Amino acid sequence: MPLLSRRLWATPASGSVVAQEKFGRLEQVGEGVWALISTPLGGDYTTVSNGGIIAGRQGVLVIEGLQTPAGARWLASRARELTGRWPTHVVLSHYHGDHVNGIAGYAGQGALAVHATTATRALILQKNLPADAERTAALADIVELSPTTPTRLDLGGRMVTLVPRLGHTASDVTVELADPSVVFGGDLVWNAMFPNFVDASPLALAASVKALRGTASTRYVPGHGPLATDSDLTRYIAMLGEVESAARRAMSAGVMPAEAAKTFTLPASAGEWTLFSPAFYQRAFEAWRRELQPRG
Fold this sequence. Notes:
Strand content: 15-25%
Mean pLDDT: 93
Low-confidence stretches: 1-5
Helix content: 25-40%
């Protein structure tokens, strides 16, 4: 792992670490708000994606179904330790397996409302194969979110806004709080980790990232990587711009994505961005080619 990325993962952006495992840590980022920061680069894939907990007087929301049921049970157990109750709500930011495949781990401890867009549920069942009976059962009574209009969820003295967005997939949702100002960005936001463009629409991605920006004091929980500040988001937006510029140059020169990826490097000014897979650069160029090539 590059030195800068190692330092960023090792140092919480704010708050205190209240639980630590090989696969991740739980950081408090405000009163009744915690961020799960997963650390899968060590080889433990119990959770993989980031997530979180938001507590109100009447309800406890967890964010993401995570990679495995064991990961979801761990997060739910920490929620009960910290708030006195098992989660009452879960929000899925999109359909990718590392964000949803463990959702059955929340079951069995009382009523649980699963909030996601209709597209998310359909794509989970269609693409996350082989099918899993417990996962399918957990999605049976999903609370469908509007694909166009934000949904306000009252947890009792704490209002959470679930905002439908596009860019990483066709089914993105961000979870946003006003006080404290915290945005759970799902995979629309990455920090110190180069994003996965596998299902991305790059123009929509860039627009969504800019639209979710809060204030100078806002904390961002990315889908992957350490907690992010406003300056980290600025760096992320600039990095996305570098990828766009390189992809447009490759298209103009007739260079195919696989070849463009082989020679692509980010400038030193963009900072260090760790790759989950060497294929991620090629995926980015492929996504831009889908976006830019003439249709007809």
